[in-house]
Structure prediction request, 202 residues.
Amino acid sequence: MKLFYSPASPFARKVLVLAYETGLIDQITPVACVLSPVAPNASVVEENPIGKIPTLLLDNGTALYDSRVICEYLDELHEGKKMFPPAGSSRWETLTLQSLTDGILDAAVLIRYETYERSEQHQWREWIENQKLKIFRSLARIEKEIENLTGTLNIGVIGIGCVLGYLDFRFPDENWRNRCPKLAEWFLEFNQRTSMQSTRPH
Ligand SMILES: N[C@@H](CCC(=O)N[C@@H](CS)C(=O)NCC(=O)O)C(=O)O
Prediction:
């Protein structure tokens, strides 16, 4: 399997962290890509018309996207502890946490594009500020719930790790730790996992 990814992409990191945690990492050949909404990557577009990473190309030529689909696909390939609970309330809670963390990442990546790809005089400040509010409201929700998640590993928790890693990487001045002390404590330990250390964004 080939994974189109970038070492800076938090969505691709979700896939890689899951692959480490489930013992599948050696089955994946990472293909690093450079792309943005205004500079699509031809190899990615050929497999995924939306042009986004992560995109997983299976050996039979089938392309899978987006990160949620890829993660759930990979989770079916191993016999260990599942990252997607199979049924019941824990499944829906975990999927909702995944949606929340993906939503934070969407907002963060959109801010990154707005501030990095656009000249300053064309940036829409109100829009950026409202994306930030989405991030901070969502972090406040996770801060309330993180004690119940300590010691748990699933796709939602992996999402939290990727969110915090991305905020440190792209928005260190936002000081999320000041707003979320419990999350900061949780991340100290979670970030030590081999899966996190091996996928640090750069
Ligand atoms: N919902 C997608 C989001 C993926 C995404 O936004 N990827 C960014 C990189 S972090 C991308 O490929 N951007 C290029 C573009 O927007 O055209 C997922 O979960 O995989």
User: Anything to note?
Assistant: The two ends are 23 Å apart (CA to CA). The CA atoms of residues 122 and 172 lie 23 Å apart. The pocket of glutathione is lined by residues 9, 11, 35-37, 51-54, 66-68, 102, 109 (CB under 6 Å). The chain has a mean pLDDT of 97.
